[in-house]
Design brief:
CATH superfamily of the largest domain: Periplasmic binding protein-like II
Shape: elongated
Largest sheet: 7 strands, mixed
CATH architecture of the largest domain: 3-Layer(aba) Sandwich
Number of helices: 10
Structural class: alpha/beta
Number of domains: 3
Length: 313
């Protein structure tokens, strides 16, 4: 049974005339009559008394009319609600970011900014578990409108976003800092660079992470490289932080992620400024993305960044 057959029947019940009902439904009378006949065959009963003038509904037809009107009304209301959802989804910008940057930037900066300007920016929550190349793929294939990522020239997979197909804004400067668990006196348990005969336990990053190539290049450039033995590797800085806090070794964390732990002496610096690594936080978009709100929101972000107000502490 087709929904349009119900609408046909409702029109016929209202006009009591095949020709007028067919005209109202914008079909030929033979087509209209055939659809009413198909409806009757589907229901297994006669719905229209064709011998009466004007046409009358049979007793079964009266019962069916009430149900047809109810079904038609539900269908219209459902269609309207679905249309509203589709409109809402079309208006919403999809944002992707790492777990660490979600904690540092999305809730404290991007989300409040978008809401204050009544622009829907919806986080793709799955992106907080993505590896680095997932962001490049998602942005290239239109799975997200905005991607907030770490950037450093040593991160090879992110270079794909530096070509002319993409545009970026530098949201903030960041620093990777070496941190250590603390001993009973509140001092760092491990201090760089360590000794070759007694290497320091190291909590590192997986090959698919943003941080692995950055830290690896930094170590290779040191005249006195750190003496480390890798105890564990993770994709996300939050996981590296948890392992360090548990006392398994030292590691590098984004400074914003480590600030509270340093403040409350749950972690300590494992080395001075010479061991810190500058990186950037960039927001990317695909230039050819024609989302109706993306250009306006991008201009808003540019104005916000040029204002000189800090993005986050």
């Amino acid at each position: 049974m087709e929904l349009r057959w119900l609408e046909d029947y409702i029109a016929l019940a209202r006009t009591r005339h095949f020709s007028r009902a067919a005209e109202e439904r914008n079909v030929t009378q033979p087509t209209f009559s055939r659809r009413i006949k198909l409806l009757e065959e589907e229901m297994g009963v006669t719905l229209i008394d064709r011998n009466a003038l004007p046409l009358k509904l049979t007793p079964a037809g009266e019962v069916f009319l009430a149900s047809a009107e109810q079904i038609s009304r539900i269908a219209r209301e459902t269609r309207a609600r679905c249309g509203a959802i589709r409109e809402q989804e079309q208006n919403r910008l999809i944002f992707a970011t790492t777990q660490t940057l979600y904690l540092s930037f999305y809730k404290s900066w991007l989300q409040p900014l978008s809401r204050s300007h009544e622009i829907d920016v919806d986080l793709n929550l799955k992106s907080t578990s993505w590896v680095g190349t997932d962001f490049v793929r998602a942005l290239s294939q239109g799975e997200c409108d905005l991607a907030l990522c770490y950037w450093h020239p040593a991160i090879e997979f992110i270079r794909e976003l530096d070509d002319s197909r993409f545009e970026h804004l530098v949201i903030a400067e960041e620093v990777l800092i070496p941190v250590s668990p603390v001993d009973e006196q509140g001092q760092p348990e491990f201090v760089l660079p360590g000794e070759a005969r007694n290497p320091l336990p190291y909590i590192g990053y997986h090959d698919s992470s943003f941080m692995r190539p950055v830290i690896q290049q930094f170590m290779q450039q040191q005249l006195n490289p750190p003496q480390l033995v890798t105890m564990n590797e993770n994709v996300h800085s939050v996981s590296v932080k948890a392992m360090i806090k548990e006392g398994f070794g030292l590691g590098w964390l984004p400074q914003r992620l480590a600030l509270d732990s340093l403040k409350y002496n749950n972690l300590a610096l494992a080395g001075g400024k010479a061991w810190q690594i500058p990186i950037q936080i960039r927001l990317y978009r695909l230039r050819d993305n024609r989302h109706r709100h993306l250009s306006n929101f991008w201009a808003l972000l540019e104005a916000e960044l040029s204002s000189g107000r800090p993005v986050v502490a």
